[in-house]
Amino acid sequence: MSKRVLVKFSGEALAGKTGFGIESEILNYIALELKSLVDNGIEVGIVIGGGNFIRGVSASEGGLIRRTSGDYMGMLATVINGVAMQEALEHHGLDVRVQSALEIKEVCETYIYRRAVRHFEKGRVVIFVAGTGNPFFTTDTAATLRAVEIEAQMIIKATKVDGVYDKDPCKFEDAKMLGKISYDQALKDNIKVMDDTAIALAKDNALPIVVCNMFKAGNLLKIIQEEKDAIYSMVSN
Ligand code: GTP
Which atom of ligand 1 is nearest to the CA of 118? Predict the structure, then answer.
């Protein structure tokens, strides 16, 4: 059986230094990293956040926009990122389908679990957009849900840091990177690799959560191929 993974990365990652929108160079870099997985026979599902355009929580902070509407706005932002990533991956010759939790059929397919699995079987990359389709759920939770549904072997949370540390590495020089953490420890110690809903869902379904640096070229592939010099932290049983 070929390996199937779900890669989740934040919308902010696409924005680069400006913190807003999509920077072509970064989009292209990430597309090439993902392509290397597909080229090695790995089935790839993708979830991208929407924070480079809007975050539901922040949008609602001033009280003008209600949280529910803010979250729907955030879900729409993930659609923009998903369509951009589809274009970038297709530019490099990959076969890609975007599936949305909200019905926007002029833009992309609607999420249908069985159809997503069929796409993987045909060697296509599937990008899941619009979160879970519900407010009050993060894209981390959406990514975990999709990973469980498609029976991914792991969910990879690709971030700007190498993994999970015992304390904030930006503030403490002696912060140590943790290799392996249990779900319970992650929840108990409030290690915010993902929100609690996502971690609990991963725990219930024994889905390993890998946290790694997306800007270390080649690292994603090394992790999945279980190479010794792969750099990451893992939350698992
Ligand atoms: P198979 O039939 O399994 O080979 O899959 P397929 O995805 O190639 O077939 P389909 O004819 O369903 O899709 C052809 C193209 O139309 C693909 O690029 C799909 O992403 C796209 N497509 C399919 N359904 C929808 C939809 O509801 N909305 C939009 N916007 N595009 C769709």
Answer: 3
Residue 57 near residue 67 (C-beta atoms within 8 A): yes
Supply the DSSP string of 89-154, one letter for each residue.
HHHTT--EEEEESS--TTTSEEP-HHHHHHHHHTT-EEEEESTTSSTT--HHHHHHHHHHHTT-SE
Helix segments in 8-110, DSSP class H: 11-15, 24-39, 56-60, 67-91
- The pLDDT tens digits for 167-214 are 888 888 898 999 999 999 999 998 889 999 999 999 999 999 999 999
Domain 4-235 matching CATH 3.40.1160.10: the answer reads yes
Q: Is there a contact between 163 and 231 (Cβ–Cβ < 8 Å)?
A: yes
- Contact, 212 vs 220, CB < 8 A? yes
CB neighbourhood size of 215 (10 A):
16
Is the full-model pTM beyond 0.90?
yes
Nearest CA to 74 out of 92, 91, 53 is that of: 53
Distance between Cα 196 and ligand 1 center (Å):
35
d(CA 103, ligand 1 centre) in Å: 14
Domain boundary assignment for the chain: 4-235
Ligand 1 centroid to 143 CA: how many Å?
A: 22
Q: Quote the Cα angle for 158-2-214, to 5°.
A: 15
